[in-house]
Structure formats: structure tokens, C-alpha cells
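// run 5 | inverse folding | seed 20
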């Protein structure tokens, strides 16, 4: 558990488009998406299907498996406005390139 009282899984996940991943991998640094203005959106493994279906339907995506111990910033577990499910949001931080452990490409 972290200092805020919620349990953080060893790995969190970030879904990006295949084009975004190409840019990230060429630069060897994580570049925020347009959806990550106030914080970086992260998911638990069991939430990936819903995230891909809701936000990435019809796109080629890459699922990034991220080592939570390498994240920089303040991690919160909270609902999006109007939502019931809680997701991890990383505030005032970044995803170091070396935190990305496994990649999975999918066509949605």
C-alpha cells in the first residue's frame, strides 16, 4: 500500500496508438498523449479491455506494461468525473522509458 492507503499493483498499463508508440520508441522517452493533460492515465490489467474498447476502437494500439516502482510523480487511485470505476492517475510525473517492461500490439 502507498501512503494514501490504496494498494498499487506491481505493474500498471498504458494504452497508446501504434503511431504514438513509434514516436516514443524512436526518441527513447515517453511522450504524453493529448488525453494526458492534467495527469497520465494508467490502468490495471483487468481494465484494459474496457479502455481499448471505449477510447481506441478501430485503431492499432500498443499496450505498455509499466513497472510501478520506476514511475516518477504522485500516483492517485480515483474515479474519472461521472465514473464509478477507479483508475490510476499519475500527477506531476512521467513514465521513464526504462519503466516499460512488455509491449503488446493489437488491432481493435
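// decoded
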Amino acid at each position: 500500500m502507498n501512503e494514501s492507503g490504496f494498494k498499487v499493483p506491481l505493474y500498471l498499463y498504458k494504452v497508446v496508438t501504434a503511431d504514438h508508440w513509434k514516436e516514443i520508441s524512436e526518441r527513447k522517452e515517453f511522450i504524453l498523449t493529448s488525453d494526458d493533460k492534467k495527469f497520465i492515465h494508467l490502468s490495471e490489467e483487468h481494465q484494459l479491455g474496457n479502455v481499448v474498447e471505449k477510447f481506441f476502437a478501430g485503431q492499432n494500439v500498443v499496450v505498455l506494461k509499466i513497472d510501478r516502482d520506476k514511475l516518477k510523480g504522485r500516483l492517485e487511485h480515483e474515479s474519472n468525473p461521472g465514473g464509478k470505476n477507479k483508475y490510476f492517475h499519475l500527477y506531476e510525473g512521467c513514465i521513464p522509458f526504462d519503466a516499460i517492461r512488455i509491449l503488446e500490439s493489437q488491432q481493435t
